[in-house]
Amino acid sequence: MKLRISEIFGPTIQGEGALIGKPTVFVRAGGCDYRCAWCDSMHAVDSAFRHDWAEMSAEDIMAEVRRLSSGRPLTVSISGGNPAIQDFGLLIELGKQEGYDFACETQGSVAQPWFAELETLVLSPKPPSSGEETDWRKFDRCLENAKGCNLVVMKIVIFDETDYAWAKAAEERYPNLPLYLQPGNPEVDPDQPVDLQAAIDRLLWLIEKVTGDGWFAPHVLPQLHMLVWGNKRGV
Amino acid sequence: MKLRISEIFGPTIQGEGALIGKPTVFVRAGGCDYRCAWCDSMHAVDSAFRHDWAEMSAEDIMAEVRRLSSGRPLTVSISGGNPAIQDFGLLIELGKQEGYDFACETQGSVAQPWFAELETLVLSPKPPSSGEETDWRKFDRCLENAKGCNLVVMKIVIFDETDYAWAKAAEERYPNLPLYLQPGNPEVDPDQPVDLQAAIDRLLWLIEKVTGDGWFAPHVLPQLHMLVWGNKRGV
């Protein structure tokens, strides 16, 4: 069985969320059931890019992960697109045999049995600014499938007040899920440099919202890779 | 019994290490047994500033924490200076009764029985560039006292290759302690703006060292508060 892969890169550090700062190899799956208005990975989402995606077996992928990491086990993050529309069970099984551990990032629209084999599952439901709507029954099914995971967290991107209120409601719905908020990034052109100060200002806005409201549940974090590399791909 | 307190501020977010991004009130103790060459908190270290420090009881401190957080429990980070030269046991006891949890950041030169009551203990031994030397027997005593903690981590600031090699040796010594590395900040004048790009470049240098070496144990993180607020105090 072949998997559609947009890119495999690293080791770099995880730039977001619960594993921020952790050395990671990324396996970015091609294809997505969502079309978020502000998607920063359209090259892994839009089927117009499908000719750039490789058809790879789990063994092929693992060989590339092994090559990039010189055979030294580390965290492999399966991202996308939405990786949950494909079957990464065998990849995870192969990698774990060699000591690698796996994280997966998905919006929570499709539940997979292989979630249970992950070390970390990051569910990132998309707020109103994305133009997508969350089906919480499907999200709940993802949570059920993730029962074997060491860590399950929720990560929400915040562009505006509406997203912020939506994130608060999501936290009330799932008070036991660790929550990570990050400011949205409206600058997603890989050929344009990122305005560092503007990115920091968006982070400051979100920090002040959260602390000013006395809402102490979420972690507030930037996209570190975006601060370091802008929207450059492969890092 | 009174405690020497340099400042109490927040809620803001934790800018460093294992709790990065977490809403936090900081209780910064006055006084330190170290004089690190690059200390960014000399106002809490040098006894020349002792007239700015307040003598506060644990009840006084807790009243201020409560006021700042509007009585909503959050993480209280006890930092310094070296907070471990004073007795924060009663503060922690009082705070925990109201649902607050406590983190403490210390170099690991003085062990305290109240370490066991913390949620998180961050031990940050100082690398050679600091001009200080670590007594690992004292560090080990801190670890012993921290046995009740939910999380004990090691955080090391890296200014140069010598620090980097030293951190690697520390990780070999304590392979089971989660390790956080952060690039050193040579710009510590609170009245001067921080050069954001230079700070990002130092982070990039450290990320490339770690990933290039295939050293996947440490998390590599910036000082987020420094990116957001520069060296401004009280945030």
UniProtKB/TrEMBL annotation, chains A, B:
Residues where [4Fe-4S] cluster binds: C32, C36, C39
PROSITE patterns (alphabetical): RADICAL_SAM
Record-listed substrate binding positions: I13, Q14, G15, R28, S79
Protein's pathway: Purine metabolism; 7-cyano-7-deazaguanine biosynthesis
GO molecular function, one term: lyase activity
Entry annotated with the keyword Iron: yes
Residue stretches spanning the membrane: none
InterPro entries per UniProt: 7-CO-7-deazaguanine_synth-like (IPR024924), Aldolase_TIM (IPR013785), Deazaguanine_synth (IPR017742), rSAM (IPR007197), rSAM_sf (IPR058240)
Highest taxon of source: Bacteria
S-adenosyl-L-methionine recorded as keyword: yes
Stretches assigned to coiled coil: none
Residues that, per the record, bind S-adenosyl-L-methionine: W38, C39, D40, G81, S124, P125, K126
Radical SAM core domain boundaries: 19-213
Residues binding Mg(2+): S41
The record's free-text note on cofactor binding: Binds 1 [4Fe-4S] cluster. The cluster is coordinated with 3 cysteines and an exchangeable S-adenosyl-L-methionine. Binds 1 S-adenosyl-L-methionine per subunit.
Matching PANTHER family: 7-CARBOXY-7-DEAZAGUANINE SYNTHASE
Subunit structure: Homodimer.
Family per record: Belongs to the radical SAM superfamily. 7-carboxy-7-deazaguanine synthase family.
Main function: Catalyzes the complex heterocyclic radical-mediated conversion of 6-carboxy-5,6,7,8-tetrahydropterin (CPH4) to 7-carboxy-7-deazaguanine (CDG), a step common to the biosynthetic pathways of all 7-deazapurine-containing compounds.
Protein name (record): 7-carboxy-7-deazaguanine synthase
Protein species of origin: Rhodobacter flavimaris
Lineage: Bacteria, Pseudomonadati, Pseudomonadota, Alphaproteobacteria, Rhodobacterales
